[in-house]
Amino acid sequence: MLTRIDHVMICVADLDRGVEAYARIGFSIHPGGIHPGKGTHNAIAFNEYDYLELLAIRDRDEYLAGSPWGGLLEFIGAGGGLRYIIVQSDDLAADVAAMRSRGVDIGDAVEGGRRTPAGQELHWKAATLGERNPLPLFFIEHLTPLATRRQQVPNASHPNGVARVERAYIAVPDLAAAVPVYRDVLGLSPAMERGTVIGADMAVFALGPNALAVAQPAGPGVAADALARRGPGPFQVLYRTRSLDAAAHWMSTHGLPPPARGVRNTGEQAMLVVPEDACGLYIGFVGPAG
Fold this sequence. Notes:
Blueprint: E1 2-11, H1 15-25, E2 30-35, E3 40-46, E4 51-57, H2 60-66, H3 72-77, E5 81-89, H4 92-101, E6 110-115, E7 121-128, E8 137-142, H5 146-149, E9 162-171, H6 175-186, E10 191-195, E11 200-207, E12 210-217, H7 222-230, E13 233-241, H8 244-252, E14 260-263, E15 269-273, E16 282-286
């Protein structure tokens, strides 16, 4: 069963600069380690159950020889940003079989791993979609327990008050055409909404405590800007914070302009950090003002 958004992968040209940018936004972000034989390294910001991953190329030659993330050089060369939304499974082999029964092109669940700077070995299974379903998603089943994985960072408390991912957003030019594809892949039926902050019509797929929103611009705004700048693909992560004001104060005292604020269709306040300050994507916050 698909249980939640596990993490988001944000690809950057320089890992140290990416860490600095997200520290200014208010995330407690720490070195994650290397992917042996893949030529990449990362940094991690853990929330309550999900996390944010910054990924960069560590060794170009090693990456070209063995990385599963083909096209990463080109993606970073075009500005980087949010490349994949990773969905967690509690039984990946069963979920792969279910997807195939719905006609989805997906590879087998393959074991992977990463070594942290402290020498901790982390293990998982992952499955990627094939050429007939080129969505910005892949799927993971952790073999290392959450409590053990959390030991790789000193703490999971952030100055911006973030507790978890609320939603991740993917821009599409034609929502009616996209919905059946995402429905087959996820095995879920969406709720249809109008996103007032991003200016889009959305199909929202609930994934446990999170949701994946597939968004078609409904006029000028964030979604239209994202689609015009980079074409179809993921463009925003929305985080639930314990205090919008605390998050905004942290950013203002660390060199960022005040984030733009708006009101969601739920009536809640939200604010957005722009791609220029977030390594190529929008980072949103929702929660109480105080």
